[in-house]
Write a structure and sequence with these properties.
The chain is mainly beta. The chain is built from three helices and twelve strands, in the order E-E-H-E-E-E-H-E-H-E-E-E-E-E-E.
Length: 172
């Protein structure tokens, strides 16, 4: 959805309880960024996009428990598992300078601090301790930990990320 006014903010991992609540993996920030929203858009694994009103969003460890209108039992939400959650960019809070929405990072060209091109950031893996960026170039895949001492800079306007690779991470 690059270039769209919709921002990918999470993914539905599964139902939570029997009252139609959803367990969500957030892709930026905490529940406050989602709980402030009046509505979200769910994109099914088949690609259909549908808008739903947010009733509540609460932190639950590293996950968010999301309640959407009109759902009130588990049977109504089972088909939503695996759906991506999007929000209108203008409805989202501003992030600190060192934080980014995943959808803004996907597609960036990644370079080493020496100027060598590693490829395009094509996926982000949420691991619990830190995210891992998946960078692909010419059939090669490089996994880069999203750590302050590894990711040196992100320039969204230039579409560029600069990293300092840990020794042994990549044999070029």
């Amino acid at each position: 959805m690059s270039g769209s006014n919709k921002v990918l903010i999470g993914k539905i991992q599964g139902p939570h309880g029997i009252r139609g609540q959803l367990r969500v993996i957030p892709f930026a920030g905490d529940a406050s960024s989602i709980s402030q929203l009046k509505s979200v858009f769910l994109k099914s694994p088949k690609g259909a996009m549908e808008e739903f009103s947010v009733v509540s969003a609460k932190n639950n460890g590293k996950r968010i428990i999301l309640t959407l209108k009109p759902f009130d039992n588990i049977n109504q939400v089972l088909h939503l598992v695996g759906s991506e959650i999007y929000a209108d960019r203008v409805a989202l809070p501003e992030l600190p300078d060192d934080e980014f929405y995943w959808s803004d990072l996907l597609g960036l060209q990644v370079f080493t601090s020496d100027g060598e091109e590693l490829g395009e950031l094509v996926d982000i893996i949420e691991t619990g301790s830190n995210d891992v960026y998946v960078v692909k170039h010419n059939g090669r895949e490089v996994l880069i930990p999203a750590l302050d001492d590894v990711v040196l800079s992100v320039d969204l306007k230039a579409g560029r990320m600069t990293v300092s690779l840990l020794e042994g991470l990549l044999d070029l």
